[in-house]
Design a protein that fits this description.
Lysozyme; 8 helices; mainly alpha
Length: 228
């Protein structure tokens, strides 16, 4: 009898411990757990960090540190993953696939740039993380701007719509009297793209840098806010 009671007691204790652990994990991974004093300016705490993102967090940290030599962009590129697929590895759009929404053509091309990431496989979330960080770094190395905030805005605009379009937009902006070295209120206002592509591209940059990056920083992901 005593042995039976002891087993019941152990089971109850383990059950309570498991419940408490689940509550702690839920609190730690929810943006709403962070008060305004802990969140960087501009954090949108109503946006939820998908639980699936934590499966790839350390992979993303390693890739960013390896490519950029720092983890300052981790939360930023995590926000990019949020914008691309909300961290759904099976996400599919009209032309792209996977976590970071690579088109088949871009997936094949990025392997020629960074062969160490392995054979193109947008459906493999780990490959997608490696490829996205490689592509961001490749763009970052080819873009200059007035500030770090502007530079990353150009990077994400290029990731979404192509580097050639960013170059065209900057040329057009200069012709219209805007500063081609600045994205916000300058190049972002100049483009010859069709309306739907223009709106999608500008919204993509805005969501990552103004909405998603602050949320991931507030949730404890490494990084420095690019556009405070």
């Amino acid at each position: 009898m005593k042995r039976w009671l002891a087993q019941i007691a152990i089971g109850i204790v383990l059950g309570i411990a498991l419940v408490l652990l689940m509550l702690l994990i839920s609190a730690a991974t929810s943006p709403s757990a962070f008060g305004a004093s802990n969140a960087p300016p501009g954090a949108h705490l109503t946006i939820q960090v998908p639980s699936a993102s934590y499966l790839y967090r350390f992979k993303l940290e390693r890739e960013v540190a390896s490519r950029f030599g720092t983890t300052d962009a981790v939360a930023r590129i995590a926000g990019q993953g949020h914008a691309e697929s909300a961290w759904r590895s099976n996400a599919r759009s009209a032309y792209a696939q996977g976590l970071y929404q690579f088109t088949p053509a871009t997936a094949q091309w990025i392997v020629s740039v960074c062969p160490e990431i392995g054979a193109a496989d947008p459906w493999d979330p780990n490959w997608s993380v490696r490829a996205a960080v490689c592509y961001d770094h490749w763009l970052f190395a080819r873009i200059d701007a007035a500030t770090a905030c502007d530079r990353w805005a150009f990077v994400f605009s290029a990731y979404n719509g192509g580097l050639v379009w960013v170059q065209r937009d900057r040329t057009l902006a200069a012709q219209r009297g805007f500063d081609p070295q600045r994205w916000w209120n300058n190049v972002e206002r100049a483009s010859a793209r069709v309306d739907w592509a223009f709106d999608e591209n500008r919204g993509y940059v805005e969501r990552i840098l103004r909405q998603f990056e602050p949320v991931y920083l507030a949730a404890g992901w490494p990084g420095q806010q690019a556009c405070p």
